[in-house]
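Below is a filled-in request sheet from our internal design queue. Each sheet records the structural input a requester submitted and the sequence that came back. We keep these sheets so that new team members can see what a complete request looks like end to end.

REQUESTER: design group, bay 2
PRIORITY: normal
MODE: inverse folding
CHAIN LENGTH: 522
BACKBONE (tokenized):
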């Protein structure tokens, strides 16, 4: 027997009548061993290695379901296809409850059997091949859009496409060369996106019309206030460092309780918590916050926490908008805090607005930078998404969303900014007290290759606080990060392949703004 051919065990007391089916499977590249009873099937399974078992439910001696139970106990990894003459629902329920891989009802034809086998044994390869073919067809369209995108909507469409293919081509069984080509396309797109942002960003900030891009400082006025004014109860959930691909990885968990409307918005620069989240809650750009509420803005060189005034900023927004909506503010740093919040959902239901900040993914990205073990667990973007999904499944946050849905409130799930996995160090010489962020720097006498960065010499152009005479902001592009000349190689090696934020990339700036409406609401 050719060991490369899949080996199938087929147990049926009428196996002689199935010889044409077995010959058909042989012709399709499968080796089939037969058994006439459950006892024979268990003996064969204990003596040989099989890739799949086909099991008749109604056999003399021990039944198919009993055989299934013993097979699963001894060989839990082998997929089992149950075939039966019975259409009784309780038989189906017991089989499915025993974790069969597929269920067929007699009479079955050879193509039905072949389809089930292909689905169970070759699905990843078939999906990967189809994805590869589809990506080849899409490759030129993505390249064309990269260099023809003329609006932020065009860039959002491109980013959605690239993210879709990133997820598809990182699935198990996908060819690595195509994934590498996609990485190259993503890198090219990010460099082109940085040029686009440099040319348009200040004009977006000056545009106060309804056609202006949705940005951090307009989330409250354009997404939250309309819902509140319409009499809706609203939860604003801000998950720090939450990217589009991570949202896609968890979105299916919300589909049974919410109607989902996924949008993207543009995070402001720098794509850092201090700037983006304060802009979200205040409805103002950082320069406006520093000027209007100096007591609520914390400068870069301060040792004070940069996001300690979020609740007062929400209150200032409501006052400025002349709204008297009752609201709450909660920051979640661990599961215990989330569990305590769930207990309070019913009492918070009277509020017009409940704001929740969730810091898990931010903590994960920082832990990945500093911990070798976490870096191993989240070594790729696909692994990073997987950890995010696992966290959603097992954390109380999943229960919190169900409680929100049960209360009938609408939830806006969003983030302050995303992250990008960096790989290329760029030397920057700066004063000793410069800010520590690896994707943007602010200060005087910044020595850097100007072709590698976006430099903003006039902070007012980007509506950022003026750090002082002769000071400027510089932003890293693509997958670059800043490293100091002193101990450059050590610094570069430590931070290469870590997730960072603060600079200009689609992953950091084009982020989810998802409206979740309970399905009980018409």
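RETURNED SEQUENCE:
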């Amino acid at each position: 027997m050719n060991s490369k051919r899949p080996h199938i065990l087929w147990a049926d007391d009428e196996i002689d009548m199935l010889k044409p089916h077995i010959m058909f499977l042989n012709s399709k590249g499968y080796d089939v061993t037969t058994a006439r009873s459950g006892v024979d099937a268990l003996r064969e399974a204990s003596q040989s290695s099989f890739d799949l078992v086909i099991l008749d439910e109604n056999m003399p001696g021990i039944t198919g379901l009993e055989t299934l139970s013993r097979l699963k106990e001894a060989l839990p990894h082998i997929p089992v296809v149950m075939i039966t003459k019975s259409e009784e629902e309780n038989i189906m329920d017991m089989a499915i409850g025993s974790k069969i891989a597929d269920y067929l009802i007699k009479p079955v034809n050879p193509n039905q059997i072949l389809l089930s086998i292909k689905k169970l044994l070759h699905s990843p390869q078939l999906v990967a091949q189809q994805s590869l073919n589809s990506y080849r067809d899409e490759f030129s369209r993505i390249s064309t859009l990269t260099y023809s995108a003329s609006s932020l909507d065009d860039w959002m469409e491109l980013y959605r496409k690239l993210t879709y293919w990133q997820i598809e081509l990182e699935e198990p069984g996908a060819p690595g060369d195509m994934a590498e080509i996609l990485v190259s396309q993503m890198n090219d797109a990010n460099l082109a996106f940085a040029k686009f942002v440099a040319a348009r960003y200040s004009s977006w900030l000056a545009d106060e019309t309804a056609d202006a891009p949705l940005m951090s400082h307009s989330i409250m006025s354009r997404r939250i206030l309309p819902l509140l004014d319409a009499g809706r109860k609203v939860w604003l959930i801000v998950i720090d460092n939450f990217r589009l691909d991570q949202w896609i990885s968890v979105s299916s968990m919300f589909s049974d309780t919410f109607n989902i409307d996924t949008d993207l918005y543009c995070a402001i620069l720098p794509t850092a918590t201090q700037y983006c989240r304060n802009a979200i809650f205040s409805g103002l750009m950082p320069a406006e916050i520093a000027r209007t509420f100096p007591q609520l803005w914390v400068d870069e060189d301060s040792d004070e926490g940069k996001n300690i005034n979020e609740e007062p900023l929400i209150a200032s927004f409501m006052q400025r908008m002349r709204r008297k909506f009752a609201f709450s503010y909660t920051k979640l740093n661990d599961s215990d805090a989330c569990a305590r919040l769930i207990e309070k959902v019913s009492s918070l239901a009277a509020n017009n607005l409940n704001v929740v900040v969730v810091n898990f993914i931010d903590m994960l990205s920082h832990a990945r930078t500093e911990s070798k073990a976490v870096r191993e667990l989240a070594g790729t973007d696909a692994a990073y998404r997987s950890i995010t999904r696992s966290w959603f499944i097992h954390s109380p946050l999943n229960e919190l969303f169900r409680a929100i849905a049960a209360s009938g409130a609408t939830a806006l799930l969003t983030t302050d900014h995303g992250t990008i996995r960096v790989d290329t160090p760029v030397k920057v010489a700066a004063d000793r007290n410069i800010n520590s962020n690896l994707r943007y720097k602010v200060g005087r006498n910044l020595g850097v290759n100007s072709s590698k960065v976006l430099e903003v010499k006039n902070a007012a152009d980007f509506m950022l606080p003026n750090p002082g005479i002769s000071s400027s902001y510089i932003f890293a592009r693509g997958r670059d990060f800043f490293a100091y000349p002193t101990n450059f190689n050590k610094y570069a090696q430590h931070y290469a392949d870590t997730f960072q934020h603060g600079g200009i990339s689609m992953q950091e700036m084009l982020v989810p703004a998802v409206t979740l409406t309970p399905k009980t609401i018409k």
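SHEET NOTES:
- The chain has a mean pLDDT of 89.
- The CA atoms of residues 12 and 36 lie 5 Å apart.
FILED BY: M.R.
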